[in-house]
Design a protein that fits this description.
With 522 residues, the protein is of the alpha+beta class. The protein has four domains: 173 residues, 2-Layer Sandwich (Beta-Lactamase); 104 residues, 2-Layer Sandwich (Beta-Lactamase), CATH 3.30.450; 68 residues, Signal transduction histidine kinase, dimerisation/phosphotransfer (DHp) domain (Helix Hairpins, Orthogonal Bundle); 148 residues, Heat Shock Protein 90, CATH 3.30.565. It is built from 14 helices and 17 strands. A six-stranded antiparallel sheet has the order 6-5-10-9-8-7. A five-stranded mixed sheet has the order 12-14-15-17-16. Strands 2-1-4-3 form a four-stranded antiparallel sheet, with helices on both faces. β3 and β4 form a beta hairpin. The termini are far apart. The mean pLDDT is 89. Bound molecules: adenosine-5'-diphosphate. Adenosine-5'-diphosphate binds next to α12 and α14.
């Protein structure tokens, strides 16, 4: 009998441990352990109760009992001692409780044995087996049952570890997926195994399409800022001391066209034997950074050029006038001084523009609101320009009863000045310059049109950017820092209005701005 027991016990335990390694479904495992334990002890029913975080117990598996009866067995889960030692584990009055329960439910259960399930000396559950006949459970029975209790404890432990690992993995996945940087993970053969959301947005590659492709199929540079790219750097294995990341920066080709400037930091992940397992790459959008760099260098070259020209002229004329060996007539003196004044004014305007740009960038361009008669303002400004140019005819046309609007006089005059001076500046041939006003239900529109060099279509979207100056020979010699239209746009928009251009190269341009009408004004 004993040997038979032993053989069967070994068989059961073997089967359970196989199941333990093969699957991780805790409930099925507990069920299997319980069934084997009950059978081998020649019991009729059994229970496994697991400890809850609050210290109480929950029945997690039952055998030989109908589902409806299981909750009644809760009374057997009270007064469970904390001891995990097989000899000392004893639930007081367990047999009595079972006796009462059996009578109440009309069950033929007479004997009960309960053994502790423990992990690292801590009680995590209890395994119960019930018998319908009177034979008491022996020490030997308890020992057999103990090995099943151990198996059940291992199953619970594994499940807990598994749950913790999968939770950790889910957390990591979420961090990677929602990271503000693009994240790319490669296996040792440089195949893509992780491609997060941000990276999809940056590169326009759907993750599903990028996964399992080779790194070089997805990360395709059109221009490199750094000396090396990833493929050449790692051609002979990871080339750097293990902890040193590799940085590559440049313009990436997006799927479906277009480029994006990114900086990629590649870091290797080695296993304990020092073999390369993964390469983890952080992909950062450096477009704004590069733009800022570009603006800075454009700023320096434009400004130094724009400052140098008037300063050189002022100095040249002043030097000449100061020469002791020459005697200048009145006319020459006045002409030279006029140049000096004009160039000083130009410097002043440039400095004002730069101050405005910096105020604007700091969000500090404030408006002094007033009632403005744009038609009269236009007439006044036009008259001033007429005295400065005789090559161009300036025509103003505004409908009668042009409504008064609300705005900042000084700033709106600056808008007109910039647009009219541009119209003159970019009209090398004599021509007509028209300034007209229109009244729409919600806004008034002022249009300044010239017959000048016009603006090529591809530049039209960029002329309102700061420091943008038209390209080509047409601009050689025309002074400017590319700030005028940028300020025009900022001023008009801070009035709640808009500005736009219609133009054709070599035919002329028409710049319009609209300012909202006062509410309640028809
Ligand atoms: P700037 O005149 O100092 O270059 P702006 O910001 O005033 O700067 O203008 C930006 C660019 O827009 C100019 O360099 C020029 O190419 C183009 N532009 C502006 N106004 C006109 C115009 N009336 N006709 C043709 N091109 C113009």
């Amino acid at each position: 009998m004993l040997t038979d027991y032993r053989v069967r016990q070994r068989e059961y335990l073997l089967e359970i441990s196989r199941a333990l390694t093969a699957q991780l479904n805790l409930d099925e495992l507990l069920q299997m352990v319980l069934e084997s334990a009950t059978k081998i002890l020649a019991g009729q029913a059994g229970l496994i109760a697991l400890r809850k975080p609050d210290g109480g117990f929950d029945i997690r598996a039952s055998y030989g009992l109908s589902q409806a009866m299981v909750p009644y067995f809760d009374i057997l889960l009270t007064d469970v001692p904390d001891a995990v030692d097989l000899q000392r584990f004893h639930i007081p009055n367990l047999a009595d409780k079972l006796g009462r329960l059996a009578t109440e439910l009309g069950l033929h259960l007479k004997q009960v044995v309960a053994l502790p399930m423990s992990i690292k000396e801590k009680l995590i559950g209890v395994l119960y087996v019930f018998r319908a006949y009177g034979t008491r459970f022996t020490v030997n029975d308890r020992q057999i049952l103990a090995s099943f209790a151990d198996q059940a404890a291992i199953a619970v432990h594994n499940a807990q570890l598994y749950e913790r690992i999968s939770q950790e993995k889910r957390r990591l996945d979420a961090i990677l997926e929602y990271s503000a940087d693009g994240v790319l993970i490669l296996d040792s053969a440089h195949r893509i195994v992780v491609f997060n959301r941000t990276l999809s947005k940056l590169t326009r590659w759907p993750a599903a399409e990028a996964l399992r492709k080779q790194h070089h199929e997805v990360i395709r540079w059109t221009h490199l800022e750094t000396d090396v790219d990833f493929e050449s750097a790692v051609a002979g294995g990871w080339p750097l001391p293990s902890a040193t990341p590799l940085y590559v920066e440049g313009d990436l080709r997006r799927l479906g066209g277009g480029i994006i400037s990114v900086g990629i930091t590649y870091a290797p992940l080695f296993d304990q034997e020092g073999r390369l397992v993964n390469i983890i790459a952080d992909v950062r959008d450096v477009t704004r950074f590069r733009e800022a760099e570009e603006v800075k260098s454009v700023f320096i070259s434009v400004i130094s050029h724009e400052l140098k020209t008037p300063v050189a002229l002022i100095k040249g004329y002043a030097d000449t006038l100061m020469r002791r060996d020459a005697c200048w007539d009145q006319e020459t003196m006045r002409e030279s001084l006029a140049v000096i004044v004009e160039e000083a004014d130009r410097l002043n305007r440039l400095i004002d523009d730069l101050l405005d740009v910096s105020r604007l960038e700091a969000g500090a361009l404030s408006l002094k609101m007033d009632f403005v008669a744009l038609d009269r303002m236009v007439e006044r400004v036009a008259e001033r320009f007429r005295t400065q140019t005789n090559r161009h005819k300036i025509v103003v046309h505004f409908p009668p009863d042009f409504p008064i609007i609300e705005g900042d006089m000084g700033r709106l005059e600056q808008v007109l000045n910039n647009l009219i001076s541009n119209a003159i500046k970019y009209s090398p041939e004599p021509g007509v310059l028209k300034i007209s006003g229109r009244v729409l239900p919600r806004e008034v529109v002022v249009t300044i049109s010239d017959e000048g060099i016009g603006i090529p279509y591809k530049e039209q979207s960029r002329i309102f950017e700061r420091f943008f100056r038209g390209t080509g020979e047409r601009h050689q010699g025309t002074p400017g820092a590319g700030l005028g239209l940028y300020l025009v746009k900022a001023i008009v928009e801070s009035h709640g209005g808009r500005v736009w251009v219609e133009s054709q190269a070599d035919e002329g341009s028409a710049f319009s701005f609209a300012i909202p009408r006062k509410s309640g004004d028809n």
